Fold this sequence. Notes:
Order of helices and strands: HHHHHHH
CATH topology: 434 Repressor (Amino-terminal Domain)
Shape: elongated
Strand content: under 5%
Structural class: mainly alpha
CATH architecture: Orthogonal Bundle
CATH superfamily: lambda repressor-like DNA-binding domains
Amino acid sequence: MSQHLATSVAESPILYVKVLSGRQIEEARKKRRLTQRDLARELGMGVRWLREIEAGNPRSRLDDHLACAYRLDLSTGHILIPLLFAGQKMCFPRQLAIGDLSDLERLCIEMIAQRNLDHLTRALTPAWANAVPAGAGL
């Protein structure tokens, strides 16, 4: 990681996410043998803007990164997981950024869903359902 990028991670996690995302988008596009022109046309954007996204330009918008990721069947974990760390004021471990984050992304979603389901179950369970039946203590 370059010194500039290391500094930007500490100062701006969003900038780091855009650089990381741009690299992954470019790699996935090339792997699928799509030209920048073809991908840009499919997404309804200009080739120049796609180049800016792939370069991790700070002015690029995260929704454009997400649109590229969706089109290329990329996990959005490389965008969303570092932002979760930043939201909790935690340092994002760079080792997590390598490779496909779809399994980690799926685990996060399952954990959130299960937690909400547990809260909903407790909220909807009547108080008498948790009461000890009369004579059970004898």
